[in-house]
Description:
Blueprint: E1 2-10, E2 14-23, E3 35-40, H1 48-62, E4 70-74, H2 79-84, H3 108-120, E5 125-131, E6 136-145, H4 149-156, E7 163-167, H5 177-183, E8 188-194, H6 201-217, E9 236-239, E10 243-247, E11 252-256, E12 262-264, E13 269-275, E14 280-286, E15 291-297, E16 301-302, E17 307-312
Parallel strand pairs: 3-4, 3-5, 5-8, 6-7, 7-9
Antiparallel strand pairs: 1-2, 2-4, 6-8, 6-15, 10-17, 11-13, 11-16, 12-15, 13-14, 15-17
Helix pairs in contact: 1-6
Amino acid sequence: MIEEVVSIELPVHERMVIKKNRLTPKDYAGEPVPRISIVTGIHGDELDGQYVCYEVIRRVNNNLERLKGIIDIYPDVNPLGIDTGSRGIPMFELDMNRVFPGDNNGAVAESVAAGIVNDIIGSDFCLDIHSSNIFVREMPQVRLNEENAERLLPFAKMLNADFVWIFSSITVLDATLAYSLNHLGVPTLVAEMGVGNRINREYSQQLIDGIFNLMSNLGIWEIPEADNKIAVREPIISTEGEVNFLTAKESGIFVPSINSCGNIHMGDAIGDIIEPIDGRIIQHIESPVDGIVFTLRENPVVYKGALLARVHGGRV
Length: 316
């Protein structure tokens, strides 16, 4: 059932409307059942979540007898951003993931954020799905604050991600949806994958399998005994101190030596920053450790200080 969550009046007789699709079990009569909220579209240039929402709804509708709880799906909580391909809310030049938990009596963005949070409150779990921006590609990963690691890590391992990144509390922004919901009592994880303005079907399918595995463990989705249990990957678990950030020392054009994220050895080439006009290499980038590349530069144009890759420093 599609429901309106927030409706805000815009100039010239238009409205910004945010909707959700609530999926409930057959013959549901309002009795207490477990509930998960799946949120995406906070950033308008992150589109993998659109496909994830579609596929989750399709699978559930095709096997509705397996649904034992409530699934609330919020596919586009920043609809103006998605419409225009903008990362933030285009009219306000504002990153929506910097205004939570919002304010019912605040400006437009704050009021929208508050309406979303108020609607999610009461969920047993929330998954906030992001893609990367247009500059870097991320392998499927789950991110969480070390403050909540003990409580959330078991759930993160269920999501079929390649990588779980536990952030230091001092680096976490307290105006994000995940931070706000966790502090309001709704266990929330952030999934990150792909690259901005693109849909990676392989990555999306990987996360979708993880979502159904998580919902099975939450008692929301039933997997018949005759079916094989969903096989999920055992992710690498990393803290912030185990991640190597490789950045550009000079501006130029980045040409990667590897085609995708994955395992790498110390000294392996990651790419070069070149100077096209005189045919020289400005910077040769190698892996500083045996480990795994989980972030790789996608946009070739780089400026001094730009992120080129993130490499987890564990041995493989």
